[in-house]
């Protein structure tokens, strides 16, 4: 009994783990789908930017700014991510993109271009967008070893915004009301929290909706299986009933044969002899001769009736 309970408990635990793993796998699939969307949409957006600002890309290579060169590099990284995802290198594609994003679009331009003024807004906005990408491209329950460190690193980049901008500002032209004002940092943190909480909530709503869809799909599948099983059972029942009817039909044919041939012969002889007795009522010699033939016919009739009775009893027993 103990072993039986133990085996049942193991089965329950295994089923639970399988269900959890299935949910986690679905979560990873959603992240990969979104990463593919990012890898497809960003090259299109950046290609439009390049088309609008095409004159810049007609300049000699050594005259172009680094932030202008970054655009085709990001396009290349996105297309490479698509190829890596196609070959199931999902970890490499996402981690390469998510690490290269702040380095190429924010840190290197600030270092090489000496904190250009437009990065006072572009840097915090880009870091906030980067945190949203982390949430959307990495699974919190399935990949916590990536999700939380990347999000923490992103937050550290945000809270050190003033330090980074001031460190590489060689011209000292950073507006004091921006980096010197504590609300510049507080606003960045506030918007970081706001956008991430909104994305977290939206993901929860979407995941809940998808889970309900999957649950409904599972219920439909269960009902379908039950219906298929019912149909199979019905087919078996119909076959069994048809077989029973065929057997009963054979029995009826057999009984009809006994009635028509085996039983009717002695019955007709007895009936005929009785009629002869009526005709030769006054002739004792004829009566004696008729009686000699009547008794064997009655005996035969009795034998046939008993034989039919045995057959009927045998059929009833086999039917039970």
From TrEMBL:
Recorded coiled-coil stretches: 210-240
Keywords for the protein's UniProt record, in alphabetical order: Coiled coil, Membrane, Transmembrane, Transmembrane helix
TM segment ranges: 32-49, 69-88, 95-113, 119-138, 145-163, 183-202
Full protein name: Uncharacterized protein
Taxonomic lineage of the native organism: Bacteria, Pseudomonadati, Bacteroidota, Cytophagia, Cytophagales
């Amino acid at each position: 009994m103990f072993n039986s309970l133990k085996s049942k408990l193991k089965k329950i635990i295994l089923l639970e783990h399988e269900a959890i793993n299935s949910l986690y796998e679905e979560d990873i699939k959603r992240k990969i789908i979104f990463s593919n969307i990012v890898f497809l949409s960003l090259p299109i957006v950046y290609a439009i930017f390049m088309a609008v600002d095409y004159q810049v890309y007609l300049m000699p290579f050594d005259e172009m700014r680094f932030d202008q060169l970054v655009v085709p590099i990001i396009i290349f990284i996105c297309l490479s991510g698509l190829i890596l995802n196609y070959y199931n290198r999902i970890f490499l594609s996402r981690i390469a993109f998510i690490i290269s994003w702040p380095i190429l679009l924010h840190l290197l331009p600030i270092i090489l271009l000496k904190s250009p003024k437009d990065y006072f807004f572009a840097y915090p906005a880009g870091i906030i967008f980067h945190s949203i990408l982390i949430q959307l491209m990495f699974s919190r329950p399935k990949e916590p070893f990536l999700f939380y460190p990347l999000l923490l690193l992103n937050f550290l980049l945000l809270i050190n915004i003033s330090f980074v901008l001031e460190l590489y500002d060689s011209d000292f032209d950073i507006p004091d009301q921006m980096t010197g004002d504590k609300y510049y940092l507080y606003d960045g943190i506030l918007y970081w929290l706001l956008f991430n909480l909104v994305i977290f909530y939206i993901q929860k709503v979407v995941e809940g909706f998808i889970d309900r869809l999957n649950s409904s799909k599972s219920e439909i599948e269960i009902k379908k299986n039950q219906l298929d099983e019912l149909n199979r059972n019905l087919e078996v029942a119909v076959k069994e009933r048809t077989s029973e009817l065929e057997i009963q039909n054979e029995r009826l044919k057999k009984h009809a044969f006994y009635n028509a041939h085996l039983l009717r012969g002695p019955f007709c002889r007895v009936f005929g002899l009785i009629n002869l007795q009526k005709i030769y009522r006054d002739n004792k010699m004829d009566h004696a001769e008729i009686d000699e033939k009547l008794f064997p016919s009655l005996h035969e009739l009795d034998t046939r009736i008993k034989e039919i009775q045995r057959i009927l009893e045998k059929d009833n027993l086999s039917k039970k």
